[in-house]
Amino acid sequence: MGSFKGHALPGTFFYVTGIWWTLKAVLKYACKRHKRTSYLGSKALFHRVDIVEGIILVCMALTGMLGEQFITGGPYLSLYDYKKGQWVQLLGWHHTTMYFFFGLVGVADILCSTISSIPASLSKLTLSNALLVEAFIFYNHTHGREILDIFVHQLLVLVIIVTGLLAFLEFLIRHNVILELLRISFILLQGSWFWQIGFVLYPPSGGPAWDLTDHENIMFLTICLCWHYAFSFIIIGIIYAFVIWLTSGPHLLRGWATSKINAVIQGASLPHVGSFPESKEDYCLFLFQKPSDT
Amino acid sequence: MGSFKGHALPGTFFYVTGIWWTLKAVLKYACKRHKRTSYLGSKALFHRVDIVEGIILVCMALTGMLGEQFITGGPYLSLYDYKKGQWVQLLGWHHTTMYFFFGLVGVADILCSTISSIPASLSKLTLSNALLVEAFIFYNHTHGREILDIFVHQLLVLVIIVTGLLAFLEFLIRHNVILELLRISFILLQGSWFWQIGFVLYPPSGGPAWDLTDHENIMFLTICLCWHYAFSFIIIGIIYAFVIWLTSGPHLLRGWATSKINAVIQGASLPHVGSFPESKEDYCLFLFQKPSDT
Amino acid sequence: MGSFKGHALPGTFFYVTGIWWTLKAVLKYACKRHKRTSYLGSKALFHRVDIVEGIILVCMALTGMLGEQFITGGPYLSLYDYKKGQWVQLLGWHHTTMYFFFGLVGVADILCSTISSIPASLSKLTLSNALLVEAFIFYNHTHGREILDIFVHQLLVLVIIVTGLLAFLEFLIRHNVILELLRISFILLQGSWFWQIGFVLYPPSGGPAWDLTDHENIMFLTICLCWHYAFSFIIIGIIYAFVIWLTSGPHLLRGWATSKINAVIQGASLPHVGSFPESKEDYCLFLFQKPSDT
Amino acid sequence: MGSFKGHALPGTFFYVTGIWWTLKAVLKYACKRHKRTSYLGSKALFHRVDIVEGIILVCMALTGMLGEQFITGGPYLSLYDYKKGQWVQLLGWHHTTMYFFFGLVGVADILCSTISSIPASLSKLTLSNALLVEAFIFYNHTHGREILDIFVHQLLVLVIIVTGLLAFLEFLIRHNVILELLRISFILLQGSWFWQIGFVLYPPSGGPAWDLTDHENIMFLTICLCWHYAFSFIIIGIIYAFVIWLTSGPHLLRGWATSKINAVIQGASLPHVGSFPESKEDYCLFLFQKPSDT
């Protein structure tokens, strides 16, 4: 991975995955809110999507593992060179291990969606596992490099650990859409940060790399990470607004409007005092207890 | 921010915000406890207050960002000086980034209160985010300074991280008034600690700064932080007592009194054995399950 | 506190408090399990006990604060000596601050038990606060001492932080008797560890202190802490067994016995198949859902 | 323990325990899912198994403690050699202390299963305790050794701490089969990692030990731990599949099949529209709320 492409590839992978998961999470949330009657139908659809997603994940992980092993200069599945008495291409093996655990996420996705005796939360757990294993490997990855190189990788490890812990929290507290989007925002952040690392360590313009010992660069990359994070927030916000607008027709304030209409309809046949609290309560339920009943 | 005013300003901002949030939280709690029938009316009021609060927050964040950029000697929106080959005023950009994330809190406040399809917990999450981003930036802020300078900023980072984690906990466990007040007490602590940092590093009397290498000063500032914390506890206690006294009329022990009166009233028409446990139970509910039903 | 007595005193205080809390927690638990009908009466009793406990705590904290200030060589309430230009007896002020926060626990105990508008969980929160403040102060307490001196204080800080976090967990998850006893076991551990520190640093036999630079001593004190911990477990176990035996009469296996008797009684009038699952289920409920309904 | 056998023995112990716990957890889960009517009978069986398990644990801990004390060159219960003025065999005492806390787990298992007044969660708590005490002792165990020796023990401490925290989480959130299996996977990892330490530090082939100062070896052991972890995952997966296949007869997709059959049966006597949603809902409940109702 010691090149710009080697960082751009996983970055693109995480970014695309993040955007796809955002779409899925918001769609699921919108379906639950609006189409309560036809919900069971969409649930079957989401199951099929999960299976396809799992298969794609497994294929990508396999490609990554084979790629890491059989590129020119790769380890070609040999681990220890007994002649020279040293390990062969351990960094390549590191990446292979990471890909393997992301492959397990795909396997868990497929199993959870096809076999009913496996609890659905297994999928979240393997994701959390894959991320924490990735963080653990990256933590022991950058021995004897320059201060800035270590710093950008430390930030990456921080981002991955937070993502892993959030995925574990999701495993415990399920069906909280905000928590899910938060975890996805960190996946997006990881994706764009891979790109940033590529630009810092292997400038694609061909120019010289950044001064790896300058402390000012560390000061800049600190806020740069925050800007990346803000950007991933904005991306998710745009997707959220777009999907909600798409699924709810012309009125964004549908919940309020529906309760208003209900009140009007009921007000025509029933005395106002009796009907109003009911519709009002329904409105409050939408507004205040959404995360708990989603 | 390298001046007394630069520390007094955010300190005052956090202190005023903290006092305002205490008032709001205690009022909300008191409204829920006493006026169960007219509660829906006050909920609409609180919504309007949230919108105004969000607008004020956005304005303050914008002012802060523009101020940091366009004060004399500020970066004037330029990030990198290509002539000199160095970054321009990175500390100013650090502060701008922090203000931006607090501005996002305001935006989330407005969105949560106006659009019904957005879960209300988003507001807590952005607050937690803004605080943790602030802590992250402050952590990488004090390179190459004196030991005491680093120590007071480390304490600040500790306070901010705890506040951020408490806000995240509030995002998960909602409607717990004690947890909310705890988080606010740390906001107050942060406010007064900014003042303390100002006094330590840039004494407004014009006298010399504290001896930045003396370990005794570190020993004192350790307990000084605790005193600031105790002070913020007392402030919140006074506001709590005042608001509860204001909303409950002359009797602070209203819950007990009400149940007593109920028992007397019911005791007049019903046999004592049947009525007493019921009112007693109501009393116990007030006393023991308050946090769960607020 | 730089003497054997200065460590034995807080040690004894924490040990006595711990044993008292164990008694109270187990009694409360036993009352809830056995006397469901007369439970309300015992609840009023526990309230009065809480008030007395709070008053005792406040008195002890006041005594401690005054003692630290006005012993021979104490700071006598003066903080800064302007003539010499240095702080006065900062270690004494450290201890005063710790006592103050434990006094706040007493105040919260009294307020929670007398004023019904204050949530009962405030008491747990102030305890957690007092412990974490104590840990924070101890952490910045041992600058420039020998390695063994620092190590025993580090272990103390570790114990106090764990206790504080457990108290905070209790604030969130209430009415879990095992969690409460776990927190108390750490209070006991803190008490006996204070004694251990006294023995290590200021041997009461008048002999020379331990070799403060010997690494073997660190190895021993590591397991010594574990033995203290095991001892506090055994103390709590004995109290638990004693109280349960006292409140349940001659049979410890009362739950099982009762269900057996019920089955026999019901079996006399009803067909066996119908009655057995019911009494069995009751038994299972006792055994499996105890912590959730206590 | 300074030999290959000294590491292989606890490794085997943890591995066997882990496999046994996996079998028990999956069997319990399968029993709960399929045989709801005959479940109470199997519950009594599991109780008896717990008692036997507790007795075995106590015996193993006693054997371990006596073995550590009375092997040739062991401390023979003497702690301090007053003649030489030094501690006797502290590492042996370390191991004795660890075994003691695992013995407590056995005692708690027996007590929880026989005495109904003790909450069942005590068993999980003592397990968490034993693991965290083990981690604490191992953390202070490897003073003054080579870098690779320290590294493999640090990884061991990391694994044990995570296991302890997961056991504590299980104490709070009970009856979550995935969480239980996750904790067991770390027990298995600990077991196989003990074997790995034995191979690295005391090669059984009699050849020279690994180069303890080579950084490449650290890089390899990092991913080696991940492979061990993946292996423990696969072991658990195989056991899970085997037990579920054993308890559910020829069809793995029993839940789906049952609901299908139900729908067909009900569809014969009732109108399709009314019966389908009911069976469908039952199916969804199986798939989505399993962890909460297990």
TrEMBL record, chains A, B, C, D:
Species in which this protein is naturally found: Phyllostomus discolor (pale spear-nosed bat)
Residue ranges crossing the lipid bilayer per the database entry: 12-30, 51-71, 91-110, 122-139, 151-169, 181-202, 218-246
Gene encoding the protein: TMEM45A
Family under the similarity heading: Belongs to the TMEM45 family.
Domain of life assignment: Eukaryota
Keyword Membrane in record: yes
One GO CC term, this protein: membrane
Main location: membrane
InterPro entries to which the protein is assigned, alphabetical: DUF716, TMEM45
Membrane topology: Multi-pass membrane protein
Compartment(s) where it occurs, according to its Swiss-Prot or TrEMBL record: Membrane
A Pfam family recorded for this sequence: DUF716
Record protein name field: Transmembrane protein 45A isoform X1
Entry-linked PANTHER family: EPIDIDYMAL MEMBRANE PROTEIN E9-RELATED, TRANSMEMBRANE PROTEIN 45A
Alphabetical keyword list: Membrane, Transmembrane, Transmembrane helix
